[in-house]
Specification:
The protein folds into two domains: 108 residues, no CATH class; 47 residues, no CATH class. It is mainly α. The termini are far apart. It is built from six helices and no strands. Helix 1 packs across helix 2 and helix 1 crosses helix 3. GO terms for molecular function: calcium ion binding. This is EF-hand domain-containing protein. Keywords: Metal-binding, Repeat, Signal.
Length: 186
Amino acid sequence: MKTPLSATLALLVALSPLAAGAASSGGAGPQGHGPSGHGPAMFMKMDADGDGTVTRAEVDAFRKARFDAADANHDGEITRDELVASMTQRLEQERLDREKRRAEGMADRMMARADGNGDGVISAGEPPATFEDMMFRRFDTDGDGTISAQEAEAGQRMMHHHGGPRGGHDGPGPMRHGFADPRPAE
């Protein structure tokens, strides 16, 4: 059974993260953008004409658009189910946006390491050292091109003792104590 909430209550619940983000003085949330990390992004969404200010008309239009988007059956009321669906969709989009930004950052770092000639592409002539290549060099302690059972066991112990294969010089990985492979990459 669908129980309609009052339009005002539904609107307040739906827009409360907006109010918290916009009212924040910043610094408390992700990237310093208030509790939810959405203050500047929400401001930009409300600033429909892009003039750097938000008018009452822009706020009202934004609020109406958000309400209409949440009111899936367009009956002028938002039910709990509609509110959950709307919030879930918005949270999923935010997650996808975060993952895209993360992937872009990872790609930038990989390009910086692997693009030897700086032309913006990785060609077959400049293959990056893969994680597997690095681990092979690290585990093959005698440099004979093979990893013996003893070398594999010692490498696993070293990785376990130092927090895994990641972490950098200051993190919980093997680089923390200078365990970088001393041999040049092939």
